[in-house]
Design goal:
By secondary structure, this protein is α/β, with parallel strands linked by helices. It has 4 domains: 148 residues, Alpha-D-Glucose-1,6-Bisphosphate, subunit A, domain 3 (Alpha-D-Glucose-1,6-Bisphosphate, Chain A, domain 3, 3-Layer(aba) Sandwich), CATH 3.40.120; 85 residues, Alpha-D-Glucose-1,6-Bisphosphate, Chain A, domain 3 (3-Layer(aba) Sandwich); 80 residues, Alpha-D-Glucose-1,6-Bisphosphate, Chain A, domain 3, CATH 3.40.120.10; 82 residues, TATA-Binding Protein (2-Layer Sandwich), CATH 3.30.310.50. 35% of the residues lie in helices and 22% in strands. It contains 14 helices and 23 strands. The radius of gyration is 22 Å and the shape is globular. The model has no long low-confidence stretch (mean pLDDT 96).
Length: 458
Amino acid sequence: MKTKINAAYKKAFKDADIRGIYPTEIDEEVTYLVARSFVDEYQCREVVVGRDMRLSTPALFTAFCKGVTDAGANVLDIGLVHTPLMYYVSGSKQLPGVMITASHSPKDHNGLKLVLPGAVPLTEAHGLGKIRRRLERGKFNEPAKPGKVRSKDFGAEYQRFVLRGIKVNKFAGMKIAADCGNGMASVMLPLLAEKLPVTFTTLFTELDGRFPNRGSDPTLRKNQKHITKLLKEESFDLGFSFDGDGDRTAVFDEKGNYINSAEIGAMIAEYLLRKTPKAKFVYTNLTSRVYEECIKAAGGVPVPARVGHAFIKEVMRKRDAVFGCEHSGHFYFKDFFYTDSIALTVLYVLEIYEEAKKNGKTFSQLVAPYRQYEQTEDVIVPVADQPKALAETYERLLQKQPKRVKQFDGWHFDFGEVWGTVKISVTEPALKIMFEGNKRKEAQALQDEVVAFVRTLA
C-alpha cells in the first residue's frame, strides 16, 4: 500500500497530539493511516479506542478501527467515554490507546490523543513524529490476518477505582451544581452521583457535538454564564463545569464566582502535603503565582514544565511528582497514572471542603486565603511566523524595563506589580499571552497592550 498525505493534514500534527479542522486537516483517510502507522510503529496487539460525541467522531472512529484491524491488531472499543476513562484502561491494563476527540476545541475540530501502555502520551518528539513520517511514506506491514473488534464497558470498574478509600458518607447533604456542557462529563458524573450522598443539579447533560448551549472551554467567562446564574439563583455549596472530552474542570464558589485553577491546585497541593511531606508538584509559566508560593510555604517542591498535557505528564513521571496543575483547568495525579482526572479533582475538592464545612465555613471562605492575585484570561493571537513574532514581542517588552526576565517555554516578564508570559502556542500558529498582578486592571491593561502589538505582526 502506497499513499501520500495531503499537505493540509500536516497542520493537524501538533507537539502534543493530533488535532485539526474536519475534514480539511483531519479526516477518515488520515485517521486510518495514523492507526496503521501506530500499530506498525509500536507493534501493537490490541488498542484501546475511546471516543467523544463530536459530529465527526463516528466516521473517525470507524476509520481508526479499520486501520487497527487492517494492521493485524485488535480493537478494544470502550465506547463513548470521557478521556480520563481511556487513560484508566490504558494505565490499568497496560495497553496502547487512543481517544478520538478535539478536547475543548471548537465544534468543527476533531483529533486523536494517542498513548502507549500505562497512559503515556505521545508527543512530536516522542512518537508522533515517527508516526507522521511512517504515514507519509505510505508503506505498511501486511498482516497474515486482520484483527477483530470487541467492546467492553469499564464504567463500574472505573467507578470503584476513583472512589477507592473514600468515605462517601461524609459528603451527605452537599448540594452541587454541575455544567456538563453537552460533553463527556455527562457520562462520568452519573458514576459519582450513583455512589455519593450528594444532590447534583446538572446543566446540559445531553451529548451534543454541536455545543448548542456554550463553548467547550469552561475556564472562559463567556462560557460560564449558565453555571453562574444557577449558583446565584439557588442554594448550593459549590459548582463545577467541564469541557467537551471531560478532562478539564472549572470550580465555582456558592456565589457563582469562578475560582482560578491555581487556587484550587494550591488547596489540593497543601492537602496532599499533609500526607506526603516534601513532595513535588508540577506547574507551568501560565499557572498563577499563588500555586508555587503555597507549595513552598507548605514544604513542597514546585517543578516547572512546558504548557501542554503531554509535557506536564512527562515531567511528572521523570520527577515523580504527586500532582500537577495547569491554568486551563487540568489537574494531574500520580495515583491516576500521572494523568488528568476530573473525577479525582471533584472528589479532592469535596474532601477538602467537607473539613471546612464542619467548621462552619462556606466554600468562598475556604478559598479566600488563596485569592491573592488577579489573572487575565489567556489570549491566542494568530501570527505568520511564531519565532519572529515572539522575538519582536520580547524586544518590545524589554523596553518597559522589567525587573526580571526568564526564558522557559516562551518569555516570562516580571514588572513588580504585574507579571506574565508570552509564548508560542502548542496547538495553533499563534502566540499565547497571559498576565497577572496584584490588581486586575493593571494586568489587563498590559495584556491588552501586548495583544495589540502582536496583532500588528500577524
